[in-house]
Structures are given as structure tokens and as C-alpha cells.
């Protein structure tokens, strides 16, 4: 398996994105505060807080931080796939997993908090998903357009090089896509012609 195919695997990309998100959250010491229901175990609190740090915020600074880290990790599928459909579907899949498990755990183990905060958190989760889709599609299409322009320029340069290597026999008019010494049609010495052109 080629290295690029290995990194294009959805599982590998998912793990890379989650790892990068975790590193950013840990590096900036981001911690979302949840007021849990009475009676929840410490182990479940730790799991829910861990998941909440990926997607939840309670202030404007938290909103900026969450949106920034998700936009940063969404660049990975955009550059790996160079296809907006694959890029946004991969980014949505990565966003879906922490959200899904967070809401399931909250619903099961802290129902009072879930009932009070779910509409607010879910709305901003949807908005984050829309932002990721828009960003993935927009940047993917922009990169594709830039690559297309670069390829067209390279093709144009190749055509120019090919045209420079063409020669027409002055005696019989046969056109060559290279610069031979003699015309295969009338046996005219073409080196004299090319030397005259070089001299000019």
C-alpha cells in the first residue's frame, strides 16, 4: 500500500484529526465546565468532560477556540483528498463522533443538565457543521481551480517548447516535430537551415 493511500484511509484521517484536536485542547488548556446532576460517578464525569472539550463552549472566547481548532483540522482532508465531497463528508464524520457520544452520555447520566442545555449546544453543533461544510467546499474548489490553472499553464509551456522544436523543410514543405539533419522526403540538408536560423 502506498503512503498516500494509507493516509487517505478514513480511519487513519479520523485518528489524525482527533489526535490533533486533543493536542490543541491540551496545549491551550481548554476546559469546558459542566454542572453535573447529583449522583454521577467521577469516571463518567471525566469521560463527559473529555468529550465536551471537543465541541462545547460557554463564552465567546470558547466559541472562537472551538471553531478555530475544527477549521484547522478540517484542512487535513481538504489537502489529502482534493475533492470537496470527500473532504466535507470526512470532516462531518469526525465532528459527528464526539458529539454523538457526548449527548448520549449526558442524556444517560446527567439528564437535568442535558434537558436544560441540549437545545443551545445542539444549535451551535449544527452551525459548526455548516461552517465546516462551507469551508471544506469553498477551499477544495479554490484549490482545484488553482491546480487547474497551474496545469493549463504547464500544458501551454509544453506546447511552446514543442513549437520551438518544429521545422519545415524549405525544399518540399514537410513539417517535422523535431529537428532532423536531413529531410526524409527530399533528402535536403536541414542543418544548414537551422544554423542560418540560429545565426539570425
Which short descriptors sum up this protein?
single chain; 200 residues; mainly alpha; 2 domains; rod-shaped; disordered C terminus
Structure characterization notes:
Helices cover 74% and strands 2% of the residues. With 200 residues, it is mostly helical. It folds into two domains: 3-158, no CATH class; 165-199, no CATH class. The protein has a two-stranded antiparallel ribbon. Strand 1 and strand 2 form a beta hairpin. The longest helix is centred in the C-terminal third of the chain and has 54 residues, at 111-164. It is rod-shaped and about 100 Å long. It starts with a helix and ends with a helix. 16% of the residues are buried.
Give the topology.
Layout (H helix, E strand, L loop, with lengths): L2 H6 L1 H18 L14 H14 L4 H22 L2 H26 L1 H54 L2 E2 L6 E2 L14 H9 L1
Antiparallel strand pairs: 1-2
